Every structure is written in structure tokens, then in C-alpha cells.
Amino acid sequence: MIKEYEPLGPHFGAVVHGADLATATDDEIAEIRAALVERKVLFFRDQTLDDDAQVTLGRRIGELTASHPVVGGVDEAHPEVYALDSTDNGFADVWHTDVTFMRRPPLGSVLRAVTLPPAGGDTNWADSQLAYESLSEPVKHLADKLTAVHDGTREFGYYLAQRRGGQGNEWDGEVVTRLDPVEHPVVRVHPETGRKGIFVNPGFTSHITGVSEFESRAILDLLYAHLTKPEHIVRHRWRPGDVAMWDNRSTAHYANRDYGDARRVMHRITLRGDVPRGPVG
Fold it and tell me: Looking at 39, 68, 78, 96, which residue is catalytic?
């Protein structure tokens, strides 16, 4: 079994010691999968994964998606691997939860460092459940009733139209040819734990439905500011061989863009998720 989980906060994040992701047993994979739900983001040092091994690992944890609804895989042999390369605009310097602009966003993600800058390029994760639970009761009651629109057009519409000729990848059994906005609850109930979490993000959430533009902006600004309070965040300083794994249903993340012209390359896979559900009643 895994030797040690080093907590990064009272309830959020952990560095996993004694795990070799390339040779982990079925029992260890099951343990990691359970820890992922509990701690939300896990970090593994000194791993030896390549693209093949990363895909194999992902398939042992869950069902893999395509690399991205719109962006192709790193190469023809690895259509599941999404390359974030700073020399090709591969940045993630806005708070976001992966691919919430689709009806079924990914359950989780596995990210490994390929090329790191000499300094900088840290990634931050926010605990959306802790953030929800620390809201005041009146704001919780308001948020519980709200629905938001998520739209990937701003970030990926041009890429789909110009670089892919309007032909994206297969996602949930259909080839993506357009990025129609989708609606998700502002508060998501985790399907495995039943815990509530804030499920809006500056990267892809465009507005709250059923309210004025002014009210929408004010509500979203309040939730974003609360979600990203320092006490809700863990920050990871990358080293060669590092792998991060997070639960997309209970986190948001942000990659620091503070390394100038140095190159940063990360490879990510995502696990197929379900349709987000809000509070009952």
C-alpha cells in the first residue's frame, strides 16, 4: 500500500510518498482513486511516466476522454494526451475548471511535467467545496438556486474554426463541430460524496441565468473572490518527474505565467465525467 500521504492543508491536497504510478498495484490504484476524492488534488514526485504510461495509468483510474473537445492530441499515437506548450500559446493563467463548457466535463485530470522553466510556472488549486462551506448561509441559499452558462467560444472558438476547420474531436460520442454554450448549476453536488462546491470559473463561465447583467457580474465576482481566497488554495512548485492528479468536480486551478520566454510543456489526460447536478429541492 501507499507509504504516506503528506497533507498540504487540513482538508485539501496531499503529496503522496512511496507510490510508483508506472507499477502501482490494483489495490494501490484503488487507494489513490479514493484519496483523490477525499483530498481533491494529489502530487507524486520522481515519477518515470511517458505518454504511453500516462495513458495506461489513466485507463486504470477511469475512462479516458479525447485530449480535448477541440485541440488534437500530442501526436497520432496519443489522441488522449493534451500538450500545454508555452511556445504554442499553451497557457492556463486564468482560474478555471477543465472543460466546463461541455455538457459532461471531465471527472478529473492527470498532469505531468515534461519541460520546466528554470523558475516559475507553479500551479495553484482551489478547493471549491471548502469555499462553498465557508460562505455565509444567506449566500449559500442564493447560490444553491442559481444556474450559470459556460461558453468555450472565447478561448477555443477561433482554434476550432481556423486551425481545425470546424472539425474537433469526438466527445461523448459526437464529433465537436461547434461550441454551443451549456448550463450548469452554480453549486455542484459531488456524485460520490454528496458535498456541495462552487462550480463557476472565470475561464469559461459567461453569466448567471435569470438575472440582470449587473447582478450576474456582481454574483460571479463575489464567488470568484471567495473561491480563490488564500485559505482555499494549495500551490505546487514543479520539479522534473512530478505528476499531479485532481478531481475536476471539486477544484479549480491556475498556472502561473511568470517565466518569461522560457519554455514550459505539460502533458494532460482527462477522465470521462458525468453531467453536473445541483442541490435537490
Answer: 96
52, 21 contact by CB (below 8 A): no
- pLDDT, tens digit, 9 for 90 and up, residues 241-276: 999 999 999 999 999 999 999 999 999 999 999 999
Distance of CA 189 to CAs 64, 185, 223, 258, 280, Å? 22, 9, 16, 34, 9
Among 112, 150, 190, 268, the active-site one is 268
Q: Where are the domains of the chain?
A: 4-271
User: What are the backbone angles phi and psi of residue 71, rounded to the nearest 5°?
Assistant: -85, 135
| DSSP-derived 3-state class of residue 280 | coil
State residue 240's pLDDT score.
97
The C-alpha atoms of residue 279 and residue 281 are separated, in whole angstroms, by 6
pTM of the model: 0.97
Model pLDDT for residues 81-116, shown as the tens digit of each residue: 999 999 999 999 999 999 999 999 999 999 999 999
Distances (CA, A) of 133 to 36, 38, 222, 227: 19, 15, 15, 10
Q: How many other CB atoms are found less than 10 A from the CB of residue 233?
A: 21
pLDDT in tens, 192-248: 999 999 999 999 999 999 999 999 999 999 999 999 999 999 999 999 999 999 999
Q: Which three cell numbers stand for residue 192?
A: 460520490
Helix (H, G, I), strand (E, B) or coil at 82: strand
Given the residues 39, 188, 253, 264, select the one marked as catalytic: 253
Question: Selecting from 3.30.420.40, 3.40.50.720, 2.60.40.230, 3.60.130.10, what CATH number does the domain 4-271 have?
Answer: 3.60.130.10
Of the residues 39, 78, 98, 236, which is catalytic? 98
Active site residue 151: no
Please say if 253 is a catalytic residue. yes
Q: How many CA atoms lie within 13 A of 256 on its CB side?
A: 17
